[in-house]
């Protein structure tokens, strides 16, 4: 049975391990190895993850079956500015994809959002990550725009923005 819990700083090595396993598969043929390495260092270093988790603005959830963590999600509520939740990260180990882990994380987030007065969930997806795009569209998300986000060292994130009404 899938169990989801809020991550703490003690879970950072697990988050990093899932990211290190998932990213090369998710972005194969999409990002260069140098951009992949840069983004991993920037987004998943221990100091950055500790700051996000301890800061409380970005919430991480880990999904596991038994003692085996299979994926994670990071999100933030954008209240009081707007009644939406922004998903920053959702990664499932390649071996666990298609087994309901991502769906379980999204279901939990949507339930949380509805019961706390949120109206929408938004997220960004790399324009060339067709499997992620199909996953979100199947879950009822709609593409609303494209955007290019500079992330440093002349790298960009070339994304679609998706939204779903709760």
TrEMBL record:
Key words of the record: Transferase
Matches recorded under InterPro entries: Acyl_CoA_acyltransferase (IPR016181), GNAT_dom (IPR000182), MshD_Acetyltransferase (IPR050276)
Top-rank taxon: Bacteria
Gene Ontology MF term list: acyltransferase activity, transferring groups other than amino-acyl groups
Domain (N-acetyltransferase) ranges: 2-166
Keyword Transferase assigned: yes
Name by which UniProt lists this protein: N-acetyltransferase
Native source organism of the sequence: Cyclobacterium qasimii
């Amino acid at each position: 049975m899938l169990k989801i819990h809020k991550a703490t700083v003690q879970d950072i090595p697990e988050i990093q391990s899932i990211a290190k396993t998932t990213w090369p598969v998710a972005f194969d043929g999409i990002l260069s190895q140098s951009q992949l390495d840069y983004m991993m260092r920037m987004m998943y270093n221990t100091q950055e993850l500790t700051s996000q988790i301890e800061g409380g603005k970005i919430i991480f959830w880990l999904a596991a079956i038994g003692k085996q963590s299979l994926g994670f999600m990071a999100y933030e509520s954008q209240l009081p500015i707007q009644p939406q939740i922004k998903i920053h990260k959702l990664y499932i180990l390649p071996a666990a994809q298609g087994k309901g882990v991502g769906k379980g994380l999204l279901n939990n987030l949507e339930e949380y959002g509805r019961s706390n007065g949120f109206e929408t969930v938004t997220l960004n997806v790399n324009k060339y990550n067709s499997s992620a795009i199909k996953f979100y569209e199947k879950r009822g998300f709609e593409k609303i725009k494209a955007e290019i986000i500079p992330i440093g060292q002349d790298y960009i994130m070339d994304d679609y923005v998706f939204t779903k009404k709760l």
